[in-house]
Amino acid sequence: MDDKLICPICGRPTRSYMGHTRNDGLCGFHADQLKSGAIEINKDGLFCDSKTKKILNFGYKETEVVTKQPTAEKIKSTKKIDKISNDNLICPICGMPTRSYMGHARKDRLCGTHADQLKSGAIEINKDGLFCDSKTKKILNSSSTQVQVDVQPSVVNVQPSVVNEQPATVDEQSETIRFHEFKQSETGSASKCIACGKPTSSGFFFCKECYAKYKNKKLLVEIRNCVEINILDDSYEGVYKCDDGHVVKSKSELIIDNYLFERGIPHAYEKAFPIDANPAHDLYPDFYIPSFNGVDDIYLEHWGFNENNVKYWKSKKYKIDKYIAQGITLICTNEKDMSDPKTALKRKLEYFKPGIINFDD
């Protein structure tokens, strides 16, 4: 997916279907609002609230829509944005809207372009917690004296000041632990990398090699005997581009998407599934298949973690209960299927039954 194809209201990626993006540039959420009538296009070609008529385009009158896909360059050429939907959700480097996914903005507030540059290594975070050019070491933060960064293995938190180390959060019903912070300890003493065991300087949780590998991911880490650490599913929350242009978050989703594409099965990735009148409550099943073998509206969910992860299991149960209540056709896959994905997917697509939850084992 091209990062420049962004919603003119919120800056999220434009909704696409089978590689084709919407001409008006709207993301999935705002496309559904336009369809429901919650928002509309005024006489000037701008998106506005249907009731209050308030202009929603974050470029205001300088940003127009309808005939041409909005681009990051066009939005950047308009007057300076002082405020968007959440006051400070702008990139600390360029001021463009922060990249967000399913309504969740990056904690480091980077825009799509600079998030990708951070992942590729073109930019990095220096010892003072500021973004800088990897080669020249030039500070890139627009206000380098005020914005500092706390690095963590998933995304980076941008804070107004440096904070002290905090313990990881542990679910009381599980040994699975999610590290929310990745920064220097108060003492600054050396420690060991939680991934490979190599010594780390200044009390960081990762060595340089493992940080480069995991810096843009959300890691689930299992603690054993208070000293042994095991990283669970290090492919989660990556960025994988499929053969049909879809961008997915895990290797397993990449395999499933490519399987459907190779067999000419039309599908959408994470299409919004409303469960009530409030769009904020929408669920996002991994895949939506409009029609297959005479059955319409088929959803496919890939469950990536086992039930030892209590938080993930609760989320799965909540979604399954909602799917049952709605009476949808759902095909479930799991990591065991990925040992022989083609056989598993062929079997499940051949033998699923409409109107029920299939293969939730």
Précis, in short:
The protein has helices at residues 28-36, 72-77, 112-120, 208-214, 251-262, 310-326, 341-351, and strands at 16-17, 20-21, 39-41, 47-49, 100-101, 104-105, 123-125, 131-133, 148-150, 157-159, 169-170, 176-178, 191-192, 199-200, 220-224, 228-232, 240-241, 247-248, 268-269, 287-292, 295-303, 329-334, 357-358. It has 361 residues and is of the alpha+beta class.
Characterise the protein shown here.
This protein is of the alpha+beta class and 361 residues long. It folds into 4 domains: 1-84, no CATH class; 86-160, no CATH class; 169-232, no CATH class; 240-358. It contains 7 helices and 23 strands. The chain has helices at 28-36, 72-77, 112-120, 208-214, 251-262, 310-326, 341-351; strands spanning 16-17, 20-21, 39-41, 47-49, 100-101, 104-105, 123-125, 131-133, 148-150, 157-159, 169-170, 176-178, 191-192, 199-200, 220-224, 228-232, 240-241, 247-248, 268-269, 287-292, 295-303, 329-334, 357-358. The strands form 9 sheets. A 5-stranded mixed sheet has the order 19-20-21-22-23. Strands 11-12-15-16 form a 4-stranded antiparallel sheet, with no helix packed on it. Strands 1-2 form a two-stranded antiparallel sheet. A hairpin with a 2-residue loop joins β1 and β2. The longest helix is centred in the last third of the chain and has 17 residues, at 310-326.
